[in-house]
Amino acid sequence: MATILKSLKKMSVIFVIFPLLIVYGCGGGGSSGGSPALSYTGITTQTPITSGNGTVVTSQAYKQGSTGGNLTGIAMQGGGVDPGIQPKSLVLSQIFIDSFNQVKIPSPSNLLTGAVVSKTDRVTGSCGGTLDRSMSIDDQTGNFTGSATYTNYCSKTGTKAGTVSGTVNISGSYDFNSSRITTLKLSFSSLTVTSGSVSATVSGDFTVNLQSTPVAITFNFLIQNDADKKVYWVQNGTITIATGNGYVDVTMGGRVYLPDYGYVDISTPTPFRVMTNDSYPSSGVLILTGSNNSKARLTALNNTTYQVDLDPAGTGTYVSGQTQNWSSI
């Protein structure tokens, strides 16, 4: 846990995997945390990836929108990345993990058998704001439920900061032996997330398994970027984060819905690797699959450039694209 938190404080793994858990009707959506603040009304069929739309579809799927919220760029401490393009999923990940890392519950040996432990406290963000937590923990099983309210809670990743405001319902498991949360689930109908100059509203679920190796994170989210007011949706999203000596490896998957095009499925056959002193992945591959097995392939060439290749016919043969700068994605 400490290793993961240390890595997250050094780098911002830019993934925006924002899926929706439950779909109501054709093209609508909501979260399990209550009445949804957002609804997806865009195209719900799978989009073909063509020579005409491939670059735009790849960019929007990568960024989860036309502005802000990158899917997989990674900003390291001291990197020259505008914090406004940090992903809301990672901003949320950082905030959720940091804000629930220091929950300390008395050992069951100090409690009456079968007691339910109640804990209410306030946590201050590393760069401002507060979180008010209220939890009830079963002293025998370690299972807990509760709620938490973020008020301009700010968490800093290197030189970059993100804030969140809103109320979440929480549940999970607490290990009395290690004195830490092992699994954490948060559900919410409306959170306001800000990173740099970019603000967004998110609705959905977030689950993190802190005892798995690598750490496994799943998302079910709708996200509306304030810039264009369009709602994007990624269904059944997954992220894993593996920490190595001087780098992190990140994998991701899920179904990304783009309101003007439809959905594509994403996967990382080769994990994105980001070195400690870099701002972007130096290696790794992201595959987007559209209708009729059409594909786009985003390849990290080095820590400053990437390339998007297209296979509109779905034959497995890609047409090479031009090298582009990560800073322009």
Describe the structure.
It is elongated and about 65 Å long. The longest helix is centred in the first third of the chain and has 12 residues, at 88-99. The chain contains 3 helices and 16 strands. By secondary structure, the chain is mainly beta. A hairpin with a 7-residue loop joins strand 12 (262-275) and strand 13 (283-289).
How do the strands and helices of this protein lay out in sequence?
Blueprint: H1 2-10, E1 11-13, H2 54-63, E2 74-76, H3 88-99, E3 116-124, E4 130-138, E5 143-157, E6 160-175, E7 180-195, E8 198-209, E9 215-225, E10 231-244, E11 247-258, E12 262-275, E13 283-289, E14 295-300, E15 305-311, E16 323-325
Antiparallel strand pairs: 1-2, 3-4, 4-5, 5-6, 6-7, 7-8, 8-9, 9-10, 10-11, 11-12, 12-13, 13-14, 14-15, 15-16
Throw out a few tags for this protein.
329 residues, mainly beta, 14-stranded antiparallel sheet, 3 helices, 9% helix, elongated
Which parts are unreliable, with pLDDT below 50 for 5 consecutive residues or more? 10-35, 67-85
Range of helix content: under 10%
Could you state the order of secondary-structure elements as H and E?
HEHEHEEEEEEEEEEEEEE
Q: How much beta, percentage-wise?
A: over 45%
- Structural class given helices, strands, pairing? mainly beta
Query: Distance between the terminal alpha carbons, to the nearest Å?
Result: 32 Å
What kind of sheet is the major sheet? 14 strands, antiparallel
In round numbers, the mean pLDDT is 80
Oligomeric grouping of the chains: single chain
Number of helices in the DSSP assignment: 3
